Structure formats: structure tokens, C-alpha cells
Amino acid sequence: MNSAPITAWEGAEAYFTFADKPALLAIFCLAAIAACVYTIVSMVKHENASSRKLNGK
Amino acid sequence: MATAVNAEIFYWWCTALMIAIHAGFLAYEMGASRAKNALASGVKNLVAFAFLVPFFYFVGWFIYNAFPTGFTISEAGANALPWVQAMGPNLGDNASGIFWAAFTLFAATTASIMSGSVIERIRISGFAILAIVLGSMVWVLGASWGWHPNGWLTTSWGLHDIGAAGCVHMVAGFFTLGVLINLGPRIGRFNADGSVNEINGHNMPMSLIGLMLIVMGFFGFLGGCIIYTGDTWMTIYNTPTTLSAFAFNTLMGVAGGMLGCYLVTRDPFWMMSGALVGVISSAPGLDVYYPPLAFMISFAGGCVVPKLNQLLLTKFKIDDAVGAVAVHGFGGVWGLVACGIFASGYPNVEGPAISFLGQVQSMLVFAVLGFLPGYVLSYVLKMFGLLRSSEAAELAGLDLAEVPVKAYPESRIPAFGDGALSPAE
């Protein structure tokens, strides 16, 4: 997978991975947001399960 | 001249920041030790640091400059021998001393990576020998090969490893694995049926603060990976970059690794180790990654590394007290491979462009370069009885055997000679 938006360094500006593929940037951004949201959801589930256990339910 | 002085100032403060890594390792490893071993663990770290500085002066800087092409000595090595004019105060040379200092701190960091894994049973003398060899010889040979503008891994295979995931973290992690195989587990770590006993350190909060100090110190470490040219910045491979690139991806990497480890463990110790996993996972491509991609690479590393540590413990019976083999060794593997997957195609100044194959081949070189010396040297030390403390000292506590003062003189520590010893204590 060639992720470089440049072939030479002369004159390069935004040279980060997939900088020339906005759709892929959006996918990576959404994936990072999803990872954060999933972590929060799993925290809530973990806390709820722990509370139920401590309450003997 | 202003450029030379500015560069000196920049690397001076990078070096100072890297001292925080050692304050961090000190706190983290003392906290991860039981109270009876707290000071011995700390002395071990201090000894490693103090030996690494002169030994990196004696041989380390020469090795880095002499061996970029493999095992043949290049001309640049002659200017890094300890008796040449560049290796002392010299008004015509603003570079050698400050670069030597930064690399010395990289070296001490490499040796410190090993030190946490071996706590509570290694002899401090044996550890010092291992630390000197790892920190002033082994890793820096890897750095010369793959973290140098003319290193053969880059000129031949296009290796890209800006943040030293290979030569520092992987080499230290695999060296440590070799040592742990010969050192063996702490007394009481495993039962006769192979099941594992928990051995908890005596001060988890101190370990957490220590780990956060290491993260802070990594900003000095990673700053030291960039070359200041006066009006811009270059990577160690002479490609252009910015401090901004490093800022984006270092922070995103730290966060991704922390959350990944938190998700799979809920353990604050692993959460902070996850910050290191995150830095290491993103390290090879800090200059080129899209920041959310760096976050995801580090998040994935954070999710996997604790499982690998558990596998080493339960399946292979490797008692790595702090998980350094998984964090640094396998974190480094993932970082190099991920850079091959996600950053292929970037041109290098010397050698071919970054490629998946080049990253994997280089990763294997670093694994062998770390493991073999660690295994062989620790085997030799074991043969001469220099590797492991006596069983009596381990049971009583290494502080009693190695240190003339007590960590907590006003507290009663059950291990100190009251006959209440138990193997897993």
C-alpha cells in the first residue's frame, strides 16, 4: 500500500500519510472516534457490571 | 555560530528532559518491587546510569560512528575515539559533546528498559555488566545500522524508524528476553502445577507517577531524534520534518496506547505502560503519520501488548516483572511493521523508499541483534554464578543483602528476619 502523497521532498507541504486521499482520512478519523466511543461504552458496562456484583445481583 | 549555539541549547534541554525518564524508571521499578527489595531495585537503576555514561564515552560513541555499513569500521569512527580532540572541550566543535550527551541518555534509557524485568532476583553486579553491554555496545550497533543517515538497513532496505522503536526498544526488549530465560522466575512466581501467583509491588501510586515521568522524558528523547539545521528540522535520515509533526503524533500515540491498554485490562499500571506502548508503536512513523492513524496504530498496540505479556507468563513461564519484553520488544515489532503497512512509498535520501519488506527484514535484524547477546552473556554470567542472587537473599529481601540502609526504617517489613517468610511474599 503506497500511502505517501509525495514522490520527492522538494516543495512538499502536507506530506502525511494519505494526505491526498480525503476519503481515507475521514475513515481513519472516524475509526479513531469509534475507538474512543467504544472505550467509553465499555467503561459504562464495566462499572454497571461491577455495581451489580457488589450489590449481590 | 548562532545555529551551532541554538543546536547546543536544544539538545542540552532534550538531554535534561531525558533525565526524567530515569527518574521515572527509578520510581516505577521501586514501586513495582516488594518493600523488601525496593532499594536494591533503585540502586540497580542508579548503577546502570552511572556506568553507562563513562562506557558510552569509552566505546559507545565510537561504535555508533564506526559501523553504519555493518561490521567494517568506517572513517567517521576515528573522530569518535575517546582520545581525539573532538571528545573534550573544544571551541571549534559545538556538536560532538552535545550529540554524545543525547546519545548517552538514549543508551541509559535502553539499559533501563531491561532493569524492570529482572527485579527482585538479579545480582546488581551481574545486572551492571549486562547493562553496560546492552547500553554501550549492543543497541548502539543497531543504531549505527538503522538510526543513522548512512546505516545499511536504510541504504539497503529503506528502513524508516524515526523514534528508534527498533534499535532502542526492540533491541532492549529482546535482549531482556534472552536474560530472563537464563535468570528464571522469582521464587514463588509459579506453583508446581505451573499456575501463576500474583506478586504485587509495594507502591503502585509511585509506579504510576514514575511511568508518567517516563512519558514526559520521551519528549526529550524524541526531540533528540530530530536534527536542528538552523532554519528547519531534519530527521536522522536527513529527510525534512517539523517539531509539529512529532507533537501531533507523539501525543496521539500516547493517548491511543493508554486507551487500548485500559480497554483490555482496566489496570492503571498497564494503562501507563500503554502510554509507552503507544509511543513505541507510532515511533517509526512519527514524522509522516496522519494523527488519527497514529492514534489507531497505538490503540491497536495497546490492546494487544498486555495479552502478549500474559502469554509470555502463562505459556512460556517468563517472569517479566514489569512487562518490558511485551511493551518494548513487541511494541517495537508492531511499530516497525505498522510503518511498513501504513507508510510505504516515502522516499529516502539514501537508499530505497520505505517498504513493508524492508521494515520486516530490519525488524528481524533488531530481534536477533538484541536476543543473541542477551542470551549468551546472561548464560555466561549464570555459569560463573554472577547472574542471580542466592535463594536466602531473595527470600530475605535483596535490600538486606545488597544495601546498607533501609527503605522504610520506621515500618515493620515482615520479610526482615522475623521468620515469617513465604515463597510468594
From TrEMBL, chain A:
The chain crosses the membrane at residues 23-44. It comes from the Bacteria. Keywords: Membrane, Transmembrane, Transmembrane helix. This is Uncharacterized protein.
From TrEMBL, chain B:
This is Ammonium transporter. GO terms for biological process: ammonium homeostasis. The chain crosses the membrane at residues 12-31, 43-64, 97-119, 126-147, 162-185, 206-230, 242-262, 321-343, 363-381. It is found in: Membrane. Belongs to the ammonia transporter channel (TC 1.A.11.2) family. Residues 10-407 form the Ammonium transporter AmtB-like domain. It holds the Pfam family Ammonium_transp. Keywords: Ammonia transport, Membrane, Transmembrane, Transmembrane helix, Transport. One of its GO terms (cellular component) is membrane. GO terms for molecular function: ammonium channel activity. It is a multi-pass membrane protein.
